[in-house]
Hints:
Pfam families: DUF3231. It comes from Peribacillus deserti. InterPro entries: DUF3231, Ferritin-like. This is Transcriptional regulator. The chain is mostly helical. The chain has two domains: 10-146, Ferritin, CATH 1.20.1260; 177-316, Up-down Bundle (Ferritin), CATH 1.20.1260. The protein is 63% helix and 0% strand. The protein has nine helices and no strands. It has helices spanning 12-38, 42-68, 92-113, 120-146, 183-209, 213-238, 262-285, 290-316, 329-334. The radius of gyration is 22 Å and the shape is globular.
Amino acid sequence: MEANNHRTKLTMSELGNLWSQYMNDTMAVCVLRYFLSNVQDEKIKEILAFALGLSELHINKIKQFLSDDEYSIPVGFTDEDVNPSAPPLFSDTFFAFYLHIMAIHGLTRYSGSFGSTMREDQRNYLSECITETLDLYNRSTALLLEKGIISKPPTLNGDYKPESVKKENWLTGWFSTKRPINAIELGGVYLSLQKTMMKEVLQLGFSQVAQSKEVREFLQRGLKLCRKHNTVLSSFLQEEDLHAPRSFASEITKSTIPPFSDKLMLNHVSLLIAFTIGFYGESLSVCQRRDLSVSYARMATEVGLYAEDGANILIENGWMEQPPLAIDHQKLAREQ
């Protein structure tokens, strides 16, 4: 607890972190409950159950934190947003890959929250979340490798010798001055491809079962954008004769019965869109070739414009829950 036994109130950033985590974990509970009702593979089922347990544990802790500081509990996502008895929309293989990618996103979000967290109990909570999510990542990665589901990034089949950059064209990346992609850039491209491929599968599957025409059309637009970006990113590997990650588009069934509400599906895609902008920006920050940097910047802009359209649909349908706001003192004064 805090120094001198003085327990301070949650800061707005800490409150925002808890609010976001509550929304994400209530969504995860709905998704994982449905996955568990359809999974056949016992090893994948075990990890899904582990992930569900983590989300349920986090929800209970967040409720306690908010209640202790006399804040309202968000609505989030409920039983109304999931139909666990719906037929399988995805295969067991995709369930395992989904857990792997979402664990990566979780690690990024939890560690990022540390920079705006002061209260000791919140820092301890985030430390626990990171440890638990790291365990989920290790379990899902080991399973994917054991079953041969995931493809590893390319290896460097040759000698590496420390050497200083001697020419300015190291930074260019166009025409005859283009140099081979370096190991740091390759890591960003490969992971970006894996994350985008997961979003591609979700958008394809969700568009197949969405009830609203507007939502279906939005998801189909996103699918085309994912495939466009996958082509761009894959080209940077192909021109070096390096392999791209495998696609999981074949892991979608022919079911047209919605397992989730349109509200949940659109919010889930919107969450992944936000992640996309983040990991494009992170990959851009380590680029040392201009053509690759330009591609990331352009793709992030395209995703940002697409995200705005999705937010408008959420707002129009009353599906976007409002985060906690700062007090508008001027408005209060005007209302006196």
